[in-house]
Write a structure and sequence with these properties.
The protein is α+β, with helices and mostly antiparallel strands. The protein has a single domain, classed as Beta-lactamase (3-Layer(aba) Sandwich), CATH 3.40.710. The chain has nine helices and eight strands. InterPro entries: Beta-lactam/transpept-like (IPR012338), Beta-lactam_class-D_AS (IPR002137), PCN-bd_Tpept (IPR001460). Belongs to the class-D beta-lactamase family.
Length: 271
């Protein structure tokens, strides 16, 4: 019996070792190409893409997969889900009224639908949503949909995703998106279908490309672009997390987040 147990353990260890090697190999496959893309755009950070069919994760930086950063405006994804689930918003056409006060972005100085607010990344719009949801429901719903744990209170309710210590990693971003798309969250069909429309950026005869950018400055400039690419029935989830090497090139940094994702997917001959 002891011999059988020992043999079983040895087999398990070999299997785990081989599995770890395989995972590392798939991660390294596009490492150089992804690094080249970041270098070209004068960015530091990580590109992570999950091939859901193979359950293989490709990245230029394995360590960065589990390094957390403020979610910034990528939090508009769970915030929108919660707004719909709580009835604060009915669908993508629900209007968020402008109070007439000056805003930091002139494009936000008007009434916006939920979909417009999402695409324009209207911070005060989503602060209004967070207020309407409230601390208790926000905390409860985040737990329900499986979002990483965040300390929410009355003082940070309208800003915890932009400043403070809230964190989400690239791996967690991808996991959250996959669980949403594969309908592993306890959300209504209305919420699910509305979110598909809200997040969609591009829909062609060959693919659907969806996602959301994010930018935080509380711990230095840090940018996200997270989302998914659907080609037929095949799904690819991505999380781009980058910082500008040149702090004076912020305008380029902001546009390059999505561009980097597109170029990485093109390198994999997916887009």
């Amino acid at each position: 019996m002891r011999y059988i147990n020992l043999l079983f353990c040895l087999v398990c260890n070999v299997f785990l070792f081989q599995s770890a090697d395989a995972q590392t190999a798939t991660s390294a496959r596009y490492q150089q190409a992804f690094e080249s893309i970041l270098k070209q755009h004068q960015l530091a950070g990580s590109i992570s893409i999950l091939d859901a069919q193979k359950d293989s994760l490709y990245t230029n930086n394995v360590k960065a997969l589990d390094q957390g950063h403020l979610p910034a405006s990528t939090f508009k994804i769970p915030n929108s889900i919660i707004a719909l689930e709580t009835g604060v918003m009915k669908d993508e056409n629900t209007i968020l009224l402008w109070d007439g006060e000056p805003r930091s972005n002139i494009n936000w100085e008007k009434d916006l639908t939920l979909q417009q607010a999402f695409r324009l990344s209207c911070v005060p719009c989503y602060q209004q949503i967070a207020k309407s949801v409230g601390v208790a429901r926000m905390q409860e719903k985040l737990t329900t949909i499986g979002y990483p744990k965040i300390n929410i209170n009355e003082d940070n309710l309208t800003k915890f995703w932009l400043v403070g210590e809230a964190k989400i990693t690239p791996r967690q971003q991808i996991k959250f998106l996959r669980e949403f798309f594969e309908r592993k969250m306890s959300i209504s069909d209305n919420t699910y279908q509305t979110m598909l429309r809200i997040m969609e950026i591009e829909n062609t005869s060959t693919h659907t490309f969806s996602g959301k950018t994010g930018w935080s400055t509380d711990h230095g400039d840090n940018g996200w672009f997270v989302g998914y690419l659907m080609r037929g029935k095949d799904m690819y989830y991505f999380a781009i997390n980058v910082e500008p090497k040149d702090p004076d090139a912020l305008e380029q940094f902001l546009t390059d987040r999505e561009r980097v994702a597109r170029e990485a997917l093109a390198t994999m001959q997916l887009l």
